[in-house]
Amino acid sequence: MNPAGYILNRLILLVIHNEASDRSSWMLYRLRRKRDKVLVEQKETIDPDKLASMKLHEPVLLRFSGYGIVSKTLSASEIVARVTADPQTFVWTEEVSTDRFVFARREQIAPALEKLSSAGILPVGIEYAVESDETEIVRSVERFGTERLHIRKLLHPTPENARLLTLFCRRLRLPLLGAVLLLLIVNTLVYGSFQDRCAVLQETIALQREKQGTMRDFSERRRQLVETFDRRLPFRHAILADRIASHVPPAVTLTSLAVQPLVRAIETEKDPVLMSGILSIKGSTADPSAVSQMIAGLKTEPFAEVMTLTRMEQNRESGMTEFEITIEL
């Protein structure tokens, strides 16, 4: 990530040119970044004693040039090593893109830094150059934006990096506040609708749970009814069916054999109503005498002491005799 566009969209560059007579000239450049270009909007010579009254609000970049500034190539390893080994005495700038190593003694820049500090100006970066024409100044600012303003380099613990990060956070403050405000507005607009939807969902869930509870209760009652149904009879169903089948003549076709049949069809969420202790036999035959033969055989069974021929009639369409026998168990 390159935050140069956020931090250095506007920048003040102070060029301090030292002379051999312990004098220096101060030139102020007001710069503006437009995409990848740096434009000079204004330049003026200033009096360093009046810095406090100028109220410079933009980030300030310093550039020292002139007397006492020495420039070498980065390949001059012996000089580079001697200078970088003594940071208490020397200050320097490494320009990788131009293969230059520029340095000076701290005592030569200390007076200027003291004036800036007394005016409440803390630079975000310091560079050193032998000369400072306008073209080189613009290039140096562009290099500063591309080489220095990267997250990895900004995380190095230096005073200049700390100021750059602070400035970066301040520039992000307004967009972040705008985003938070937008979220609050959106939340206000959709909160009522969201609450209504939640209420509908909660009501639906409550109804579903109530319905599930009712179905569970109904299933449990049905299970208990089946268990009661089995316990009521003194005979096992399989035995009853087997004994009845043994008395069915070949001429008779059984259409229904129901133990404790339903009084009416099962209704949703209602317990089934049974004809307790009743066995119902239904069938049809072409020979009505076969019905009498079947009844005579069933009377020999101990469970069929009370037996009634409930219905016996001829079906006009098929010509078959249909019958129904009821046994009280």
Please tell me about this protein's structure:
The strands form three sheets. This protein has a five-stranded mixed β-sheet. Strands 9-10-12-11 form a four-stranded antiparallel β-sheet. It has nine helices and twelve strands. The protein has 329 residues and is an alpha+beta fold. A hairpin with a 6-residue loop joins β11 and β12. It has three domains: 152 residues, Nucleotidyltransferase, domain 5; 62 residues; 92 residues, 2-Layer Sandwich (Gyrase A, domain 2), CATH 3.30.1360.100. Helix content is 43%, strand content 27%.
Compact summary:
The protein has 329 residues and is an alpha+beta fold.
Distance linking N and C termini: 92 Å
Q: What coarse outline follows from CA principal-axis ratios?
A: rod-shaped
> What is the CATH-assigned architecture of the largest domain?
2-Layer Sandwich
CATH C-level label of the largest domain: Alpha Beta
SSE layout and pairing:
Blueprint: H1 4-7, E1 10-18, E2 24-34, E3 37-45, H2 51-54, E4 60-66, E5 70-73, H3 77-84, E6 90-95, E7 100-105, H4 106-118, E8 125-128, H5 134-148, H6 151-154, H7 159-232, H8 237-246, E9 252-259, E10 278-285, H9 289-298, E11 306-314, E12 321-328
